[in-house]
Automatic annotation (TrEMBL):
One of its GO terms (biological process) is aerobic electron transport chain. Belongs to the NADH dehydrogenase family. Keywords: FAD, Flavoprotein, Oxidoreductase. One of its GO terms (molecular function) is NAD(P)H dehydrogenase (quinone) activity. Its EC number is 1.6.99.3, 1.6.-.-. The keyword Flavoprotein applies. PANTHER family: 64 KDA MITOCHONDRIAL NADH DEHYDROGENASE (EUROFUNG) (PTHR42913:SF3), APOPTOSIS-INDUCING FACTOR 1 (PTHR42913). Its cofactor is FAD. Residues 3-283 form the FAD/NAD(P)-binding domain. This is NADH dehydrogenase. It holds the Pfam family Pyr_redox_2.
Length: 355
């Protein structure tokens, strides 16, 4: 009996399991899923949980139930690629024949003193619950700093304004305008939304230090009752410790078939994989489709295609509270109610197909 071990039940891991079970897993294959959460979480919606606009049972579903699947609820502590061995914190080590690493990401603090100690985050369900508790227990008129004005920062700032309009929210951005990597039309729309709703944007920010309740911007101290960090991500610590080739962001360099060069039995999916796109749930699912295809062909002794289809992403959507949104769909800017409805519709479909 061969053993496929999947580390992480995120978007990539879920898609791989679905595709394998739909296609028919060979009878001599056992699949072991390891995840520190007891269910699959919709990480793209963590911002809303943190802000308090949805309960946590709205953004999770059970892992698949299949006779060839075993689930281990634990955290990975080390991967030994030389001996095909995965070490866990609270269970015996697992020996694998094939391995899929989908351990996700952590906050990147850019070596800023105190950032890891005195800020809240939304990169895991545990961290998001803590952030939710901190934000929603604040007294009226409390000051909240959100560091990082990318997609996550924009969404949590807008959702928090909707949940707690009594708070004074400050969004810190390193550029001249939020979402500066998006088309100017979208950036301006989001920037105007924040101005209209009383959220203060601090442009050209340079956070140099964080202390308890104090954020230093250009070395100038500013007092806050809560500081939320959304200023970048990096691969999971276990992946950072792997002795394999990585790109400048610390993500694992892969072959066109998504396995580690020189080892066709170890694949990397999602935020830890070096791909020509920014990490996203959509990308992890597209990659998961291809990994499942490669696995089935290798298991069945079939030749792999000369090349896999180029991954093409459909676009990106973001929310501004429950009624407005923005995005790029087929490279066309989209703003307003329609963008928000599209995002809600995609979430509903995802829940439907995974529930």
């Amino acid at each position: 009996m061969k053993k496929l071990v999947i580390l992480g039940g995120g978007y990539g891991g879920m898609r791989i399991m679905q595709k394998l079970f739909q296609s028919g897993v060979p009878e001599d294959i056992k699949i072991v899923l390891v995840d520190k959460a007891p269910y699959h979480c919709f990480k793209t919606e963590f911002y809303a949980l943190a802000a308090g606009t949805i309960p946590d049972n709205h953004i999770r579903v059970a892992f698949p139930n299949h006779p060839q699947l075993e689930f281990i609820n634990d955290e990975v502590s080390h991967i030994d690629l030389q001996n095909n061995r995965v070490e866990l914190q609270n269970h015996e080590a697992i020996i694998y024949d094939d391995l899929i690493i989908g351990l996700g990401c952590e906050d990147k603090y850019h070596d800023i003193p105190g950032a890891d100690q005195y800020t809240y985050g939304i990169q895991s369900i545990e961290a998001t619950r803590q952030t939710n508790n901190a934000l929603n227990n604040l007294p009226r008129s409390s000051r909240v700093a959100i560091v990082g004005a990318g997609l996550s920062g924009v969404e949590i700032a807008s959702e928090l304004h909707e949940s707690r309009p009594d708070l004074k929210i400050f969004l810190f951005d390193r550029g001249k305008m939020v979402l500066s990597k998006f088309p100017e039309k979208l950036s301006k729309y989001v920037n105007d939304w924040f101005q209209d709703h009383g959220v203060t944007i601090v442009n050209y920010a340079n956070i140099t230090k964080v202390e308890e309740g104090i954020l230093y911007n250009h070395d100038e101290p500013m007092k806050f009752d809560c500081i939320v960090w959304t200023a970048g991500i990096r691969p999971n610590k276990v992946v950072r410790e792997l002795d394999v080739e990585k790109d400048e962001s610390g993500r694992v360099v892969l072959t066109p078939y998504h396995n580690i060069p020189g080892n066709e039995h170890v694949y990397v999916v999602g935020d830890c994989a070096s791909l020509p796109f920014a990490p996203s749930a959509q990308l992890a699912e597209a990659q998961g489709d291809q990994i499942a295809q490669v696995l089935l062909k290798r298991w069945n002794g079939e030749d792999l295609p000369d090349e896999l289809p180029e991954i093409k992403l459909k676009g990106i959507l973001g929310s501004l509270g429950k009624k407005q949104g923005f995005g790029l769909v087929a490279e066309r800017p989209l703003t307003g109610r329609v963008a928000r409805l599209l995002k809600s519709g995609i979430l509903w479909l995802y829940k439907f197909h995974n529930g």
